[in-house]
Amino acid sequence: MTARTEDATRAGRPAARTSRGRLTGGAAEQLSRADRVARGKDARALAPLESQAEFAPDASRDPVGLLLDQEKSRVPELVPVRNGRMLVSPFTFYRGAALPMAADLATTPTSGLRVQLCGDAHLSNFGAFASPERRLIFDVNDFDETLPGPFEWDVKRLAASLVVAGRDNGLGGKACRKIVLAGVERYRKAMQEFSEQSFLEVWYARLDVDEAISEFQARMKASRVKAAKNMVAQAHTHDSMQALSKLTTSVGGQPRIISDPPLIEPIEEAYADQQASAIDEVVHGVLGKYQRTLQSDRTYLLQHFTLVQVARKVVGVGSVGTRCWIALTGAGDGTEPLFLQVKEAQTSALANYCGRSQYSNQGERVVAGQHLMQAESDIFLGWTRAADPDGVDRDYYVRQLKDWKFSAPIEQMAPSDLATYAGLCGWTLARAHARSGDRVALAAYLGGSSKFDQAIADFAEKYADQNDRDHAALQAAVKDGRVQATTGI
């Protein structure tokens, strides 16, 4: 019996069925509003709002050891690239350290209120991309670690990232705290707003970038408004046509992916002929099989495209070393390119701490979590399993490589802009959590005061300090040879 179920039973109210790998939002909708409010308030007995500030790391914790264990399932020659990227700054370390933080969060108080977690909700994992209606929307955009779990974990991951990024930008403690409070307060107030809405209203809610700019325009300097609009215009150019001009060259009248090792390497250059042929066959198979997980109209659309070339791609920070391919496809006479990304999905970093996924296929776990949390998802998002050339069955998910995707230049943001951005992230995360969790209970738990906000800000400062120490520990491990790192990539 989970703590939340036990609390509800003691209070004489019906409890939604729970399991460590599943959500209870749907069952919660069947309870009365009064029961759901009481559930949220009861959760304060389990984790008082002030307790969300607590973080007391055990002396035996070994974040570098966790990262080394995680390396075992990754492509060996790419692991040093990941470590090198994590060395760059405390923020890049933080981006790659979802696993150590999951282990740390497992030691902190939780309310027992579960949602579908992003699992890696730092501020760089929010961004803009095109909706199927061709509107630019802002949402969570990375789901490699998604899994059901305590809602606080995403909030704390976001809050601590704001402090770490703020420090990287040269901001002092007061400025960083103000930014964190802006994000967490917006999360709390948005959850209150969603708690008053119908389930369908919550489901249809989304953050339209053009509308957001209009809303903030009166409070922004003219230069900032112009810069925001220029970023939107630039985002509209980030599509497969732009990728074609940037990532390919013409050879014999045919587009060929430009080699930029180790970041992007055509498989025929990265591998011996026989192995390259085997990988090409795997990607062909993935693109064929995964279509079964798409809507029928999207399968029909995708069948108009033919695979032209495959390349290996190094992505992100935390994902470096997982197997990732980009597939250049073309339709018609070859003038209509479509870049797809075929990415390996491994077990979530959260799995050992908040329960294994109900999905046996990790690609399906990623896709299901993304569909549940995002207001709109890529029309080509799907999943499958494939036998790789080394004989190991691996799970993959597929999505477009470029479709108006755009990330905010966080390192260039002034404190006021970073606070505004934190608020956008806070609202977006609340909307994602309100879709999968019991938004009424969550709102009741969070309450109308700033107690939760202040507690999370306290936690964020403590964890940013810990992150600095962990970053230094990685530097020391590289220096003494325990960890291999390739810098400058």
- The helix content is 40-55%
Biggest beta-sheet profile: 6 strands, antiparallel
Strand content: 5-15%
Stretches with pLDDT under 50, minimum 5 residues:
1-19
How many distinct folded domains?
Answer: 2
Regarding quaternary structure, what we see is single chain
Q: Number of DSSP helices?
A: 21
Strand order within the widest sheet?
8-9-10-11-13-12
Question: How large is the radius of gyration?
Answer: 22 Å
| Structural class based on helices, strands and sheet pairing | alpha+beta
Globally, the shape reads: globular
Q: How much is the average pLDDT?
A: 89
Report the count of strand segments. 13
Distance between the termini: 48 Å
Description:
A 6-stranded antiparallel β-sheet has the order 8-9-10-11-13-12, sandwiched between helices. The protein has helices spanning 3-10, 25-28, 33-46, 63-71, 79-87, 90-96, 98-105, 151-168, 173-195, 199-204, 209-216, 222-235, 240-247, 267-270, 273-289, 296-302, 351-354, 362-373, 415-436, 439-446, 451-479, and strands spanning 114-117, 126-130, 136-140, 147-150, 207-208, 248-251, 254-257, 264-266, 305-313, 324-331, 336-344, 382-387, 393-400. The protein starts with a helix and ends in a 10-residue tail after the last helix. The model is unreliable at 1-19 (pLDDT under 50). It contains 21 helices and 13 strands. The chain folds into 2 domains: 3-116 and 149-209 and 413-479, no CATH class; 240-400, no CATH class. It has 489 residues and is an alpha+beta fold.
